[in-house]
Write a structure and sequence with these properties.
By secondary structure, the chain is of the alpha/beta class. Helix content is 33%, strand content 24%. The chain contains 13 helices and 19 strands. The structure holds ligand PMT.
Length: 406
């Protein structure tokens, strides 16, 4: 679960061309379960309309210190009491200067002055304005007072000039907020590859063999690793899910395609988790034309698909984790897969339980480790919560191994 869930975040949008990127920040924050209140300066509203933010956040956008229909009491003071954090993105040289000098002449600058909560500024401006001594000195002042700054990046600016001044990416800003609020970043910078979903093996151009995997378990793992700071590559078979924000997403269909992508990415990874339900068999000779009803009933001949996981150890030093989906003798089969596929850990889950396994919101199982011969049982819970717990257990084992290696 994200540290942002249930938190009340104020997003201040000021008058930079990067204001359009703030829409994605609202979307990403909302996905974590945070409530987002957007507040715009007048110049901000010239860049992008408040209606867009109102639709994305589900709340009225605040723009005026003295609204046309005044509410009882002082809105910014009430707000100050309910907020958990403030992001200003994009933050112009103007709002940075006002914050540094305690100027409160509009709703956002007044709220910033009245609110004693963690604050995160993502500056965006022309590179000369950013480099200007006045801006740099204002940045130093607000940093010293505890405001976190995500430095702008180098690149092409609105003026088409190239320099430092581009606002950081929305996902980087949301990650920084999670970190600021104490969210776990135990995977920070780790390269993690996760597979998810089923594979589809063609029978003819319109039919295929597949299984019931929805991708939910693998996507939950990818989202959790992302939240905890990992650089995640998600290789997914066909699912109805939206790609996980902030991950490098690769869509595949067949086991053969999944194998190709996994093998290409595997050498660079530090952790690989195969949660995909790869079809063990494919049609030996798929038809190139749609099969017709007329004539004799076809007999489909199967042949084995490659075992992707089993062939990974020689090409990667990554910590390798498999998933075992079992019905009978689960423990025995999972431990056998752990050994035979040369894995570091395997998660046993069940294909024959009402609330777990394929296409359910919840899951349960046992995580077995090769090194410590330890096993950790996980009771029935949401796949999101289970994903975090599995990642915590794996991280502990990986740290133990790193320490042993010195
Ligand atoms: O997607 P959901 O609906 O959320 O369901 C989640 C899940 C049940 C699919 C998931 O939790 C799970 O158990 N995934 C693995 C399913 C599976 O294929 O298990 P297996 O016991 O057949 O395979 C063992 C391991 O080898 C797996 O990590 C699998 O990805 C891998 N494998 C299997 C076959 C193959 N040809 N190549 C492989 O790499």
């Amino acid at each position: 679960m994200s540290i942002l869930k249930g938190k009340n975040i104020l997003l201040g949008v000021t008058g930079s061309i990067a204001a359009y990127k703030a829409c994605e920040i609202v979307r990403l924050l909302t996905k974590t379960g945070a409530g987002v209140q957007v507040m715009m300066t007048h110049s901000g509203t010239r860049m992008i309309g408040p209606a867009t933010f109102a639709a994305l956040s589900g709340r009225d956008v605040l723009t005026d210190l003295f609204p046309k229909t005044p509410k009882a009491g002082l809105e910014h003071i009430h707000l100050a009491e309910t907020l958990d954090a403030i992001i200003v993105a994009p933050a112009t040289a103007n709002i940075i200067a006002k914050t540094a000098h305690g100027i409160a002449d509009d709703l956002l600058s007044t709220t910033l002055l009245a609110c004693d909560v963690p604050k995160l500024f993502a500056p965006a401006m022309n590179f000369r304005m950013w480099r200007n001594e006045a801006t740099q000195s204002n940045i130093a002042v607000i940093k010293q007072r505890g405001v976190s700054i995500i430095d702008p990046t180098h690149g092409q600016l609105a003026s088409l000039a190239v320099g430092e001044g581009r606002m950081a990416e929305p996902q980087t800003i949301v990650d920084a907020l999670q970190k600021l609020l104490g969210g776990k970043q135990d995977y920070y910078g780790k390269r993690v590859l996760i597979t998810a979903g089923p594979t589809r093996e063609p029978i003819d151009p319109v039919r295929f063999l597949s299984n019931r995997s929805s991708g939910k378990m693998g996507y939950a793992l990818a989202a959790a690793a992302r939240e905890r700071g990992a650089e995640v590559t998600l290789i997914s078979g066909p699912t109805a899910l939206e790609p996980v924000a902030g991950c490098d997403f690769i869509a595949v269909e067949t086991a053969e395609e999944m194998e190709k992508q996994v093998r290409e990415k595997a050498p660079d990874q530090e952790l690989i988790i195969m949660a995909a339900a790869v079809a063990d068999f494919r049609i030996a000779h798929p038809e190139t034309q749609k099969m017709k009803r007329e004539g004799s009933t076809p007999i489909l001949k199967l042949e084995p698909n490659p075992d992707i996981l089993r062939k990974l150890r020689p090409i990667t030093d990554a910590y390798l984790v498999g998933f075992a989906l079992e019905m009978e003798e689960g423990r025995k089969n999972a431990l056998q897969k752990l050994r035979e596929k040369n894995l570091d850990a395997i998660f046993l889950n069940y294909a024959d339980r009402a609330q777990s396994g394929f296409d359910k919101e919840t899951n349960e199982g046992i995580l077995f480790f090769k090194d410590s011969e330890k096993e950790i049982p996980f009771e029935l819970q949401s796949k999101n919560s289970l994903a975090h717990r599995i990642l915590t257990a794996i991280r502990n084992e990986m740290s133990g191994r790193e320490k042993r290696k010195g």
